Amino acid sequence: MPPAGTDIGAMSLPPGFLDELRSRLSLGQVVGRKVAWDMKKSNQGKGDFWAPCPFHQEKSASFHVDDRKGFYYCFGCHAKGDAISFVRETENVDFIEAVRILAGEAGLPMPERDPQAQKKADRRGELVEVMEQAVKWFRLQLRTGAAAAARDYLDGRGLNAEAQARWELGYAPDDRQGVLRALKGKGIPEEMIVAAGLAARPDNGGAAYDRFRGRIIFPIRDARGRAIALGGRAMDPNARAKYLNSPETELFDKGRNLYNLAPAREAAGKGEPLVVAEGYMDVIALSEAGLRAAVAPLGTAVTESQLQLMWRVHPEPVIALDGDAAGLRAARRVIDLALPLIGAGQGLRFALMPEGLDPDDLIRQQGAAAMRDVVTQAQPMVQLLWRRETEGHDFDSPERRAALDKRLRDAVALIRDPDLRGHYEAEFKRLKWELFNPRRKPEAGRGGHGGRGEWRGRGNSFRPGQLPLAPSPSARSSVLAVGGEVEDKLREAVILATLVANPEVLPEFEPALERMDCRDPDHAAIAQAILACHHAVDLRGAVAARLGPDALETLFAQRHVAISPAVRCPGDPDMARMCLAEELAKLVARRGHARELAEAVEDLAGLPDEGLTWRLSRAAEALDRAGRGDGEDRTEYEYGTNGAPMRRDERSEFEALLGTIAFGKGKPRKE
């Protein structure tokens, strides 16, 4: 079989011909015949073109052509490819015909095809025709009296005659030579019937016999809609195998195909989530319930080739597995397979079914809305990986915690994409913090204290139930609560504008941007857009295309942004680096202090101590200095409990102030 993704027609062309063809073509010119470019978003000089997508109905220009790289991608329907795939899809022609059209435009004569490759392609075409004849025959058998039990079974599963016709379902009679006899009667040689996987010859040289007998038949088609194999469900509960698939043939490699691939690709192109189920009936139930972009592997665990097929259809397939132990084991196998393959914009999510139910069961018992909710709530792969490494484990010793660290490191090491590896490491760090430093919530009706358990100080004892659930009005209105929000947003705006105006420094500051927790929702959206478009030649244009021009216009119109030297004079990387380093350092330092003080407020709010707000405001002065950078000595940093940098002198003052607060005193004592 050819490698996954290789068209059989390409194998019949001389080496280097396709590369020469692509080098002579302008993808912008090829696509330009079918679309109207949005000249406001496009940058012709850089080979960067935008237009409404020709593959789905839309008004905005989300279809992007990179003429220099020779690839297109639609951010709406996720269609992607090169000049050959564009001609194939828009002209509805096969690979060789698309090459012929493009070769004519490029002035390249079509080479003579390899006779052996041509012979092989012709034979595959003949086998496809054999399979199509078999599908028609099996469909006719489902209407006969012998198939009454099969029709009753399908009706019981919610598939009426119209649905059975949509899915081309058939029936293989319990006859040793049913399809064999029927196809031979049409003049098809027995050797072709065996080669198509419809019949088999016994090892002792006896007469050939049908592979499928007494089974409901599910036709399996490739991405181009050609019948290449069959799946069969036994009607006899005592059959050796409940489900049986065609064997490996010249047409069929079960590890490189997916059930319902072509219709699912079309539905996913219109914005539907790609849902991966375990079997034929699950796929049919999902599609009939409105989740039409559904596929299933073919009797095997998911393979690497099948994952690559899924990612060509959708960047983030949803794996819907049965809600039992076997389903979780299958999810874990998929995770191990996927870790080395995932990357930016290429991942997996997992929809865990209610225990004991598969998608078909859930839809029949609770309806399509319940299934759609499960898909909507699918968890990212990192969550499943975390569950796998932590569920059923105790972490009550340093050795056990170190073992968890090692398992997580080993898993993350499998990720090849360094940027994504960093994100996984950061997420695991966050999850470990939550696991080892839980903030318990108070139980209803029993009071609460902020989740720190019993806390005793000098002469005072704070026990569960003594502190109110909410901070007092004085604490809420303190300098700590309101003093830094505006300042944070100002710094966020300067950082984002500097990166957009000086994209050449983005690779150096990308990790810091990923960790920056924007307080302003608009800033958060811009940060995400910058990260998503970090490889764009024109970063500002790409971000504007993603969010609309108003987002950046609003950002750059702010006075404190406009007067920033790195924004006023873009193109000076050193100035941009200095600006970003300073703003990020102040932002991180200020928020580090703020987190520790906020925890103090949460634990102490409501104490009958009139000096509490005064003491917190004094402690906030250290926080304010962190924001201003007063007297800053960058070599004198230590770190707070949340990992934020503090100067040593600030750290001492900060701890002293918190200590006096904890002990319930009035103003801090002078030593």
Shape: globular
Main pleated sheet:
5 strands, mixed
Secondary structure tally, helices: 30
Total count of domains: 4
Unreliably modeled segments: 1-6, 440-483, 630-651, 653-671
Share of β-strand residues: 5-15%
Broad structural category: alpha+beta
Quaternary structure:
single chain
For the terminal residues, how far apart are their CA atoms? 83 Å
Task: Please tally the β strands and state the result.
Answer: 19
> Helical residue percent?
40-55%
Major sheet strand order:
12-11-13-14-15
Mean pLDDT equals 80
User: Compute the gyration radius: what is it?
Assistant: 32 Å
Subunit structure: Monomer. Interacts with DnaB.
Pfam families: DnaB_bind, DNAG_N, Toprim_2, Zn_ribbon_DnaG
EC number: 2.7.7.101
Protein name: DNA primase
Describe the model.
Its EC number is 2.7.7.101. Belongs to the DnaG primase family. It catalyses: ssDNA + n NTP = ssDNA/pppN(pN)n-1 hybrid + (n-1) diphosphate. With 671 residues, the chain is an alpha+beta fold. It has 4 domains: 97 residues, Zinc finger, CHC2-typedomain (DNA Primase, Chain A, Alpha-Beta Complex), CATH 3.90.580.10; 131 residues, Alpha-Beta Complex (DNA primase DNAg catalytic core, N-terminal domain); 130 residues, 3-Layer(aba) Sandwich (Dna Topoisomerase Vi A Subunit, Chain: A, domain 2), CATH 3.40.1360.10; 183 residues. Helix content is 49%, strand content 10%. It is built from 30 helices and 19 strands. The strands form 6 sheets. A 5-stranded mixed β-sheet has the order 12-11-13-14-15, with helices on both faces. Strand 3 and strand 4 form a beta hairpin. The chain is globular. The termini are far apart. The N terminus and C terminus are likely disordered.
